[in-house]
Amino acid sequence: MRVGPRGLLGEVVRIDGEIIVVQVYEDQTGLRPGTEVRGEGQPLAIRLGPGLLGRIFDGLLRPLSGSHADHVEPGLRASEPVRLAFEPAVAPGARLAPGALLGRVKTVYGRPQSCLVPPDVGGTVLSVVPAGDYADDETLAVLRDDEGRTHEVSAGHRWPVREPRPIAQRLPKGAPLVTGQRILDSLFPLAQGGKAAIPGGFGTGKTVLLEALAKGCNADVIVYLGCGERGNEMAGVLDEFPQLDDPRSGRPLMERTVIIANTSNMPVAAREASIYCAITVAEYFRDQGLHVALMADSTSRWAEALREVSGRFGELPGEGGYPAYLASRLADFYERAAVVRTLAGETGSVTVMGAISPPSGDFSEPVTSHTKRYVKAFWALDAKRAQARFYPAIHPLQSYAEDARDFAPWWATQGNGEWVELRRRFLTLLDEQAQLERMGRIIGKDALPPRQQLTLLCADLVAEAFLRQSAYSAIDRVCSPARQAAMMKLLGRFIAGAEAALAAGAAPEAIAALPGLRALQRMGEDIGDAALERYAELDARVERELAALQPATAITEEAGDAAHR
Ligand SMILES: Nc1ncnc2c1ncn2[C@@H]1O[C@H](COP(=O)(O)OP(=O)(O)O)[C@@H](O)[C@H]1O
Ligand SMILES: [Mg+2]
User: At what angle do helices 481-503 and 450-462 cross, to 10 degrees?
Assistant: First the structure.
């Protein structure tokens, strides 16, 4: 709906007989009885097109000019047309199914894109423009459908945000989304087309983690949704992203990024719609056969908007004051993450990562507990770790990845055939560490038997050398799969070697004092992706030091062999 003289954007949210309830998504100052209301003739829709990459929009996909603009003109409809170079892929007479490829487009910014027939239009091509320079709202082709109606197709089209875009078929998940974060890729991996929740109390590092994922993950397109957080929480994205390069391609990061900013100072009702806008944009790129990652910060603020809007209707509140349909709305949203065969016959995916900010960090509250039912990966941020400045503060014992074992073949192709074994070893060590620390607090760590002291030493090493990863380190902020494999295997060999040394009579204190151990702890910061061969050097050095610890030569060889195996 368009409401009032300024044509404020609104959506029908309820029809009671003769009475229509419209939620206006903009500042309603000045509206009064008698004001004119007009229907737009379609559900809340956004205009999709090749000009989205590299830009910043509000929650209803209206362009925000400049990074500091946090408001748009009331009633604004869409951006001015984007210029593009069009290269047709079809000729008159061709039959085009809905969603089929019409040609290729390139705007001044970002990657070349596919220009597809909208998913709800198809037919025989009557005419198509020659290759050249056009605006995204200019007609590029005219189609006649089987009912004899003609359709003018341009590079952009409108799509209702609450309606998932059609696909040919859902496909089984395959490769992981490579995030560049060791603890995620190696311990709690997420498939492309999968969904992950990032719950964490205030200040535990949700925003920093989502930003690190947006910068470092291997998706083709990033849709970053800042939903209801304070404006300064988005400052990192708005100010920093335009300056950064994609660590993989070396191209400006913004070329593959769409930012949707709906901060807490913007109308609360629009926040509810912003999450659907974001996932519709993600689906739009997926339909071009691209892998898209959507980061939403935070789904709690979205749920609060839902609660507020529901409250205004006087709906019966459920758990935590949220409406009873909270769970089904969350399910509808996460359901749109998938790997698909597109209408044009290509493979694309949308991976969703949603931050959750549970009040006082309590994971039993409704948004966290419902989300848990729909996501496969749960990356729990821990306040204690964050306080200790152990980043990323993902708790290895509270987090999980349900499909983790499916990634063993993929990890084998990345040089880590022992991944399942090593992953289990690391997680077991971290679990034992938690138990031993409890016991150590009672009887004193020194009173623990040598075997258990070694367990603590190895678990500390895994935490320091592998889990800890600074988002601000030039070398370590992104860790390639090859490097993760090298580090994981190196740590695995050290652990086996240290156990063999202990069995051969070496004291845990002597192992703890090895200079090579310091080098292991710092290897993430010291040895980058460009110098992977130095991991082998470090391996040899640590092995020498461990071997030198042992008392008798006969045992040394045996233990050395054990370490090799
Ligand atoms: N991975 C990280 N590396 C270094 N510092 C971090 C990391 N994650 C969080 N921090 C620190 O913690 C602060 C709060 O993180 P933030 O992501 O804003 O928390 P949240 O969004 O959960 O409220 C950041 O400003 C930063 O100083
Ligand atoms: Mg935050």
Answer: 170
- Give the ligand with the smallest distance to the CA of 301: 2
- Is there a domain that residue 410 lies in? no
Q: CA torsion, points 162, 166, 171, 172, in degrees to nearest 10?
A: 10
Nearest ligand, measured from the Cα of 227: 2
Question: Considering 137, 157, 177, which residue would you say is the last residue of a domain?
Answer: 157
The whole domain housing 235 covers 169-401
For the whole prediction, is pTM greater than 0.90?
A: yes
- Can you say how many angstroms the Cα of residue 356 is from the centroid of all Cα atoms in its chain? 13
Q: How far is the CA of 319 from the centre of ligand 1 (A)?
A: 30
Q: Closest-lying ligand to the alpha carbon of 298?
A: 2
Q: Probe ligand 1: pick from 206, 208, 389, max atoms within 8 Å of CB?
A: 208
What number of other Cβ atoms are within 10 A of residue 110's Cβ? 21
Cα 232 to ligand 1 centre (Å): 13
Q: Which atom of ligand 1 is nearest to the CA of 212?
A: 1
Is residue 250 located within the same domain as residue 284?
A: yes
Please give all residues whose beta carbon lies within 6 A of any atom in ligand 1, as ranges. Answer: 200, 202-208, 391-392, 470-472
Give the residues across from 46 on adjacent strands.
Answer: 159
Domain check: are 382 and 423 in the same one? no
The span from the CA of 371 to the CA of 394, in Å, is 17
User: Mean pLDDT per 10-residue run, the chain (565 residues)?
Assistant: 91 89 85 92 93 90 62 56 93 97 92 95 97 95 96 96 97 96 98 98 94 94 90 77 82 91 78 94 98 96 92 88 95 97 97 95 95 97 97 98 95 97 98 92 86 96 97 93 97 97 94 96 95 96 91 48 51
